[in-house]
Amino acid sequence: MFEQLEKYLSERAIFSTSELERISSKFDFEKVSRNSILLGFEDVSQHYYFINSGCLRLFTINNDGIETSRYFAFENMFCTALPSFIDQKPACEYMEAIEKSELLKISRVDFYKLVNEFSQFDKIYREILELGFITAQQRIYGFQGFNALEKVKWVIKNQPTFLLRVSNKMAASYLGISPATLSRTKAKL
């Protein structure tokens, strides 16, 4: 149950077996079904998730009921509504399992205890934050000047399995194009 998490951590820093066991002991296993909402719009994020299997999505819904996907996390990734997790204010977005998923969940309190207790865990957390920031910046600034084909090519290059696992509707909202445009663009590749 904790093998993937321990492998993920060991590939990024040096931990003893006892340290890995201590870290793993702070996580709880959770199985969720497809379309499960893990965090509501008004909720404050109290957990960080490591994905053993499945996919989580962060998204918003505008006044017209249109969903906009902001982030997708797959196996061997961490996911939470990070601004809410950090500042303890309402998320103003939803977190949903878009596939049947097996997750390891850690409370905010325990997560920050590990960050403070293990410098290697703190380093991994910083790497997660930095990678998330870089990816978000590349997506925002890149997408501003990209046409639909360039956006689809970007996502294929940066997230190769994304279009295979995410519905056209969700993928289109992430890319900022219509589902019809996405279908036409994929047909050109």
Automatic annotation (TrEMBL):
SUPFAM superfamilies noted in UniProt:
cAMP-binding domain-like
All copies of domain Cyclic nucleotide-binding, residue ranges: 31-116
Note one Pfam family from the annotation: cNMP_binding
> InterPro entries, from UniProt?
cNMP-bd_dom, cNMP-bd_dom_sf, RmlC-like_jellyroll
Q: What protein name is recorded for this chain?
A: cAMP-binding protein
**Taxonomic lineage of the native organism:** Bacteria, Pseudomonadati, Bacteroidota, Flavobacteriia, Flavobacteriales
